[in-house]
Design brief:
Structural class: mainly alpha
Strand content: under 5%
Number of domains: 1
Radius of gyration: 12 Å
Oligomer: single chain
Mean pLDDT: 92
Number of helices: 3
Helix content: over 70%
Low-confidence stretches: none
Order of helices and strands: HHH
């Protein structure tokens, strides 16, 4: 939820934010906030394991 909100705020400042899945991250944040009871925990875990390392690398490249 926090990551999704942060990406949303950054995207407001920079519409060309070079994070490959920014819209999906924001969408997941909205699901967590507004429809948390419909989220499959296994699907959320897969997202964390598969996509979080990619996001981490993209954020590191932005810091340089």
């Amino acid at each position: 939820m926090i990551i999704g909100e942060a990406v949303s705020q950054i995207k407001k400042l920079d519409k060309d934010l070079p994070i490959s899945s920014a819209d999906q991250i924001i969408g997941l944040r909205n699901l967590i906030v507004h429809a948390y009871d419909s989220i499959d925990p296994a699907a959320l875990w897969r997202i964390l394991i598969k996509d979080l390392p990619i996001l981490k690398a993209e954020i590191r490249s932005l810091k340089r």
